[in-house]
Structure formats: C-alpha cells, structure tokens
Design brief:
heterodimer, A: about 300 residues, ABC transporter involved in vitamin B12 uptake, BtuC, two-stranded antiparallel ribbon, 15 helices, 2 strands, about 0% strand, B: about 400 residues, alpha/beta, Rossmann fold, 2 domains, seven-stranded mixed beta sheet
Chain lengths: ~300, ~400
C-alpha cells in the first residue's frame, strides 16, 4: 500500500471517529470511550518501549494524573478543563523528578521500579486522608460537560489525538533514530554522540504527561477518584496486552490491538456473561504465543511476502 | 480503521446478544459476575424472575432480567448502564456490589433518572455522590454507618442478655482499601466515643488484592489483648488469617470476621468453629423463617448449589420488591413506580420486613441492620437480633490446641 493511500485511510478513519456521535448511540459511544482510553495508554507505553525500556508504571502515572485533576478542582478551585491540563503537567513534573532517579536503570531493574510506582503513589494517597480522601477517595460535584455522551467521547478522543500526535512525532523526528539506536545498542548509540539519558528523559516525561492527562480525563468523566479505581493494575496490563497483540514499536500496532481486544472483551461479555474473562485470557495467550510480533507484524510479513512474489 | 470499528460496533448491536424479546417488562441487572456475591446475586434474581413469571407475571406481562457484568470496574459499570438503558430499553435497574463501581455508574444513572434498586455499595461516598435529589435510587444494603450502629446495638444487647460476655477492648484488623477503611472509621466513631469501649486497629493487605501476610496485624492485636477481635477484609482472608492466628496462638474471647461473603466450604474447616461473623442471612434461618426456606429450596433446586452469601437473598428480595411495586403502580412509569416503592412492605427471606425511609442524604434507604452470627458445627447460627435468633452464642472462642 503506498504512503498516500495510507494517509488517506488515516484521514478517513479520523473523520469517522470524530463523526461517530452522529450515528452511534450512548452505549457504543461509551464502549468507544473505554477502547480509546486504553488505546491511548497502549500507544504511550509503546512510545517508551521504542527505547528498549519496558515500563510497568502506566497505572501509577495515570493515577497521579487522576488525583491531580480531582484535587485541583476540590482543593484549588480549578475548572474541570484546567484540572485536566494540570493533571498532565503534574504527571510530567513528577516523572521528570522520578526520571532522574530511575532512568539510569536498565532492563528488569527499570521495569521493577516502575511497577512499584503505582503502589508507592497509592500508599501516599492512602496516608494523606485529610487532603486526598484516603482509601475512600473523593467525589466531584458532577462530571464534565454534564455527562454528555458525545462530549465525553470527544474529550477522550482528544486525549487519543494527543497520544497519536506525540507518537507520530516520535516516529517522524530525530527522536525515532535516537530511541531506536538506544534500543539496538546503547554503546554504539553513545559513541555516535546520542545523549542517552536526555532522550530517555524526554520520552519518559512526554509519555507520563499523556498518561496523566488521560487520568485527568478519566476522573472528570466519572466524577470520582479512589486509589483502588485509578491505580488499578488493569491500567497497566490491558494497554500492554493491546500493544503486544497489535504489534510493538509502531503507532498502528497498539491502535489495532486496542480495537480488537476492546471490542472482543465487550462482545464476549455479552455473549458469555459467566465465563468471558476466561475466553478473553485464552485469546491473549494464544495470540501472543503464535503471533509474537502482533497483528501489525503479521500484516507486514504477509505484505512483504506478496511484494517479494511480485518482484 | 475507525470506519471498521464503527461497522463492528453496529454489527455487535445486530447480534443476538443485544436482541430484544416480546412484550416483557425488562429489568436490567448489573453485577460483578466473577465474584461470588455478583454471581449468586444474579442467579437469585433470575430465580425470583422465574418464580414470578410462573405465577402469572406482573400486569399480565412476564418479567425479563437482562444481566450485564461490570467486571468490578467503574468504566465497565457505566457502559453496562448505557447498554441496558439505550439498547435493551429496560424499565429499571438493579444490582451492584462494590462502591467503587457504583460511583462510576452514578453519572449515567442521573442522566436517565430511571428507578435503581441497589443491592450493594455500602460506602457513604456513594450517598454523597447521589445527593439528596436522587429520589429514583432505592438502596437496600445498609450504609457503612448503619452497619456500624447496628453492631454497637447488637453487642450492647448481647452483653445485657448474656452477662458472662464482657467486652471492653476492641481491635479491628482492616484491609487497607475503601471497604476496610470505612469499617475502621465507623468502628472508631461508633464504639470509640463515650469511653465505653477502647478501640484500636491496624490495616493489612488483603489476600484478594495480592496480600495475605497477617503477622504484623495479628501481633499488634495480640499485644493489645482485645476482648473482641474483628477483621474486615474479603473471603480470601478468612482461612489464612485463622491459620496464622492459630500459629501465633492468638485466641481472643471473640474472634469475628466481616467479609462481604465467606469462602464456599468455610464451615467444613475445623478452624471455623466458634468464629463469629456479621451478615444478613444464613441457611439456618430456614428453621425460623418461611420466606428464607422457600428462597433456599428454590435456589438449591435450580442451581444445585447452596447460596453462600447474603447477596443472593438480597437480590432475590429486590426482584420481589420491584414486582410488587409494579403491581401496585399498575405501570412502569418512573414517578408512579417511585411512589409504589415508597409503600414497600416486603417480608423478606432476610428475616425482616423491608421498607424504605430517609437516611443521612438519600430518601430511600431499605435495610439498616446487619446480624451477628456464629459458626457452630459448620452452620452459621444467628445470635442477634434475638427475634431472628437460631442459637445462643458459644463464649469464649476456644484456645488453640
């Protein structure tokens, strides 16, 4: 498929996504919001993965973004819109500081530390009950845009647009070469003059900010935050499974994975109410075992083989 | 790609999973089906629906229960409400258990304003989120502060009735999440004020949430020497905590657990003997309550398993309350239904007649008391309230051998 055709397909898909509220009811919009939220998180996870760093910290940064937004409204009197921007800024600032501590770690050491982030943040929130509401959380007076199904959908879509723009920005800029070089061989990347720590820090802060932004959108859409809900491990595990299913080291892979897994989860739930999670888990295991490069990797393999046959 | 997604969504809408059937009164039920409380709650609700339909239905129409799993997540709970309201076009909603999921559903409940008969969500935060103008919300389960007050009432009554039972020091081991913390807050406030009781407590990470080591909390309890040791956690904590208490030879005069549901087969473990518990229902109530017996027999006959949690008779009761209200209202129109529900007087399998009255914030609160029970010879016996009593308490909790 040539590049222009791909651009046209992306533009059409984008237009269809924006126009979805015109022809879909509240339920498909709600399902789409859930899929989009996890899709955006999957993209941000993949963006950092392109440097070779496997982060399990999505839920932690999503959660502190969520709390920054909700406390911004309740304690600082921010408007809901400002609180979402504040969530992104707060998660970005926190990740900037954390980055100095953890970005010199590599492989499983980095992964383990990021895994602990959600737990550390959750414990901090638990232990400041006067300010954060403690384990019981906090409730907003209402949800943003008075809970309009279309408005909330577009808001979440806006979060996805930010993630997509950042991901494509990573792919089309010097960032791509820097992160790929770091992933392939740090020593040769360093000898080529790449400032490894600086590029990793930029990638970590950008992805964390977006995760915080999404956390802010989430709490403004549901009107509450509790540590158990916003630091839920699913905010780490599902995006990871989606990116692996769709294909890593690309923007399109997590998008494909999120659509497939998100819709499959909802469909299975309605078809097999008392056993869908088992089937869902089996699908993930089978796909990862037999398609380790994901759907996008498979598609590229098939199209590469077709090109070779034509040649 | 998005177009494909839209087509997929539309295709989903066309499948049998979403299909509507005949002239029935549709009730939407939302539970966490991977959890015993939600699974058995939905099964019991279906049992009630079938009984009512077998008896001729309501207003000449059959009832239909459409169940959607909320997966224990707020966003999935909200999606379930949207699906039931806009795709299935249900007349009203029921179900619920975890407060965190209920909080996620509330904005969507408010958007539609249809009657909701809630069987769970004990946290006062849910009541705060609902607000005073949520007249369409009928909350059956006691709020956390109702439960705390009923425990104080119960232990006061038990000490008066059985003078050998003396409680001064209470220790609460509570799971560190919202459920445990609200139990701790209520216990501190309700037992701690006035100086009649000395209350202490410590948190633990529940085995259901990746924990399972209770050594530090049990050590703290042991050194406090409580007359009443109480733990507020989940079913997964019940046996491991007892095992560790036994290993540490920690045997307070009263050992009491307050999980939302007990593990199936807990009563068959020797460790369960003389453990006390809070709950709303036990199969032993079949001996004293005809409604309980009818529910129990129907459940076992239909599903070939025993109801292991009070959420089963609670959900069963919710369906009968809804059916009676529809009959009384003569319609499923929301305003008439609210008025009819306000007139509810339902003699439930839970051993009490359920009606609705104002709580701290909302207008329609149902049950306000929990019961105090004790495992005796593998059976949960009710020891308080005395009008539902099935056995006298065995005191003290025996020392470990």
């Amino acid at each position: 498929m040539n590049r222009n055709l791909l651009r046209l397909a992306a533009a059409l898909a984008g237009a269809a996504a924006v126009a979805l509220p015109a022809f879909a009811g509240a339920y498909p919009l709600q399902v789409a919001r859930n899929v989009i939220m996890y899709m955006a998180l999957a993209i941000t996870w993949d963006m950092l993965l392109r440097s070779g760093q496997i982060s399990f910290g999505i839920a932690g940064l999503f959660g502190i973004g969520a709390y920054a937004a909700v406390l911004g409204v309740l304690r600082a009197g921010m408007s809901p819109w400002l609180s979402i921007a504040f969530a992104a800024a707060f998660a970005g600032a926190a990740s900037f500081l954390i980055g100095f501590l953890i970005l010199r770690l590599r492989t499983m050491y980095f992964s383990i530390v990021t895994l602990a982030l959600a737990e550390i943040f959750r414990i901090v929130i638990h232990n400041l009950p006067e300010f954060t509401g403690g384990p019981e959380g906090v409730v907003l007076e209402g949800v943003i845009m008075k809970g309009s199904a279309s408005g909330l959908y577009w808001l979440t879509l806006g979060g996805l647009a930010v993630a997509l723009a950042a991901s494509w920005g990573f792919e089309k800029s010097r960032m791509h070469f820097a992160l790929t070089a770091i992933r392939n061989n740090e020593t040769s990347a360093k000898s080529s003059g790449i400032d490894i720590f600086r590029w990793l820090l930029v990638a970590f802060v950008v992805t964390s900010s977006i995760q915080g932004l999404l956390g802010g959108i989430y709490v403004q859409s549901y009107g509450f935050a509790t540590p158990d809900s916003v630091f839920d491990a699913n905010f780490t595990l599902l995006p990871l499974a989606m990116a692996l299913l769709g294909g890593i080291h690309s923007t399109i892979g997590p998008v494909l994975g999120a659509i497939l897994l998100g819709l499959a989860a909802e469909w299975l739930k309605l078809r097999i109410p008392y056993g869908h999670l088992v089937v869902y888990g089996i699908i993930i295991i089978v796909v990862i075992l037999f398609m380790p490069k994901g759907l996008y990797g498979l598609a590229r393999k098939v199209s590469g083989a077709a090109d070779r046959r034509r040649a | 790609m998005k177009r494909t997604f839209a087509i997929l969504v539309i295709a989903m809408l066309a499948t049998g999973a979403f299909a509507q059937t005949g002239d029935t009164i549709k009730i939407g039920g939302i539970w966490t089906l991977a959890d015993i409380t939600g699974k058995q709650g939905s099964m019991a609700a279906q049992q009630a629906i079938e009984e009512i339909n077998k008896a001729g239905g309501v207003l000449g129409r059959k009832l239909e229960l459409i169940v959607v799993d909320d997966e224990g997540k707020a966003d999935k709970g909200a999606a379930a409400v949207e699906k039931l309201m806009t795709v299935d076009n249900v007349e009203l909603l029921m179900g619920g258990m975890a407060s965190g999921v209920e909080l996620g559903k509330i904005p969507t409940f408010k958007k539609y304003g249809k009657v909701v008969v809630s069987t769970g969500a004990a946290s006062y935060k849910v009541e705060e989120a609902l607000g005073a103008d949520s007249s369409w919300y009928f909350h059956l389960h006691p709020w956390d502060y109702n439960q705390g007050a009923s425990y104080v009432e119960g232990w006061d009554a038990i000490q008066k009735q059985y003078p050998k039972i003396k409680i001064k020091k209470i220790f609460l081991a509570y799971e560190e999440g919202a459920f445990g913390k609200s139990s701790w807050d209520a216990t501190k406030t309700l037992f701690g004020t006035g100086g009649r009781y000395v209350v202490d407590g410590a948190s633990f990470k529940s085995a259901a949430l990746g924990g399972g080591d209770y050594a530090s909390v049990l050590e703290a309890a042991k050194s406090f020497k409580p007359d009443l040791f109480l733990w507020a956690g989940y079913d997964a904590d019940a046996l491991p905590m007892l095992e560790q208490a036994k290993a540490m030879k920690f045997s307070p005069s009263i050992y009491l657990g307050a999980p939302p549901g007990w593990p199936i087969g807990f009563g068959t473990s020797k460790l369960s003997e003389k453990v006390m518990l809070y709950g709303m229902w036990a199969p032993t109530m079949n001996d004293t309550n005809a409604a309980s017996k009818a529910f129990y027999k129907g459940f076992v006959a239909k599903y070939k398993e025993e109801p292991a949690t009070y959420f089963a008779p609670l959900s069963y009761s919710a369906v009968y309350i809804i059916a009676d209200a529809i009959k009384l209202a003569g319609t499923t129109e929301t305003a008439a239904l609210i008025k009819a529900l306000e007139a509810t007087k339902y003699a439930s399998p839970l051993g009490e007649t359920i009606s609705f009255s104002k709580s701290n914030i909302i207008a329609h609160q149902g049950i306000r008391r929990q019961k105090i029970l004790q495992w005796q010879s593998g059976r949960q016996e009710v020891i308080w309230p005395f009008e539902a009593k099935t056995a006298t308490p065995v005191y003290p909790f025996p020392a470990w051998k």
